[in-house]
Amino acid sequence: MRGSVLAGALGDALGYAVEFDRWAAIADRFGEQGLTDLADVDKPVISDDTQMTLFTLEALAEALRWANEGSAADELACLWLAYLRWYRTQGQLLPEAAPEPPPTWLESNPHMRHRRAPGNACLSGLGTGRMGTVERPVNPDSKGCGTVMRSAPFGLVPHVAVEDMVHLAARGSALTHGHPTAAASAGALAGIVARIVRGSTLDDAVAQTVDALSRAGEGAAETHTALRTAVEAAAADRADRSPGAVVPVDPPRLTARFGEGWVAEEALAIAVYCALVDADEDPATHLRRTLVRAANHDGDSDSTAAIAGNIVGALHGTAALDPAWVAALVERDVVEREVDEFLAAVAGAR
Fold this sequence. Notes:
This protein has helices at residues 2-16, 23-30, 48-68, 75-89, 105-108, 120-127, 152-156, 162-173, 180-197, 202-214, 221-240, 251-258, 264-277, 283-295, 301-316, 323-328, 332-346.
């Protein structure tokens, strides 16, 4: 659990340093291999991706604490209130129609009050003051990656059926993004992470998720196609390389295959491809290569690297983390504390 959240934060920080740069500009700035070391980033900070991931953790921890007290909680309401707190951290005034969530330590932390390119649909969806649902969505045409990049924590909740957490992630997506592909992609990431933390290999977790998407109906079709393409591309690239060789980082080819990651299914496909293609390396090398590959391209670099980090971090845990990278992360203490809060709730705290 800790490995997934921290690795996602490291990927976010690496990618945020180059998020709005084209590959040519990245190569010009950092060299022909691109940005390969967090030490080359002057001040590694998290973006809205990890901010919203932490607020997802907060909401799930609250629901777990209610359960630990023997009371039923409305998990979707917990999520909405947590995201409204994040909305306030972005300098936004809550609309009159919205409830006033009680403040928490996470919302009050100064590190959470930085506005770092938050997603338009996340802001506009919460700005309606209505709790979006699958049946009554806000932003019904939006499938931006702002749903996927916050959804790994759903997969980290133990003792609950994978399918239930996939469903909750999809419903949580509708709080801000109403397009079915956004819901399917958020649920798919939750499913991959959930299967990994329950003991599946990376290949099996992705394969089982692809299979589930194939049976999920028309609304999951785009996500199913994107993930299947990622799996096939990673397998082909691993098979084509020379023995002992590494599949080269090729940003133009990455975006030509999967897009730039600004929408949900593209961001997930890029992250899954990057996680799979280096999967036979040792844990530390696997994570580092995955994050570098997922951050260096034309598109939404922080989201794709954060999602990839969530997946590979869940697979290997904290053993894969580079201590120097973790130490350099400006918001490390905030991330660690929210993980501690979540783990305490998982362990039965009230």
